[in-house]
Amino acid sequence: MSKSIWEIDPTHSEIGFKVKHMMFTNVSGKFKNFRSTMENEDNHFETSELSFTAEVNSLDTSNEDRDNHLRSADFFDVEEFPLISYKSTGIKKINEGQFTVSGDLTIKNVTKNITLDAEYSGLMKDPWGNTKAGVALTGKINRKNFGLTWNAALETGGVLVGEEIKLAAEIQLIKQ
What we know:
This protein is mainly β. The chain is built from one helix and eleven strands; from the N terminus they run E-E-E-E-E-E-H-E-E-E-E-E. The protein has an eight-stranded antiparallel beta barrel. The radius of gyration is 17 Å and the shape is elongated.
């Protein structure tokens, strides 16, 4: 068996999230600066160990005021907690190309084990001879479980920011 090491291709990858705003629309965001690696045996996805870090200061929701609020102590507190990280602890095959990935997500020094759905697209050679792998990850977390508790009540009932965060990552990796 041979071990393969993969690095993320940041120009062909996106790490993002969605959250309900005012109880009825979604606001999307993404991280501009992130790193991800994958190690596996004989290029088999189910043997992979995945890791990921994002610089919280690179958060972008297409609104500077909102981004600055999210970076503040009300939410992520980037001065104290500059990174979000994830490290897989196990991968289970569901069907061909469909997996679940369990792992430890750390936000604001709070670590919780979460499970993500993964669609593994397999291997492909690009026009320059690089071997690439494609993985799409989706999942949900409750932001309050990670100390992201700020909110504001709405006059009509409900709250400004939903608790459930939908996670989505489209990742292209390059074999090293």
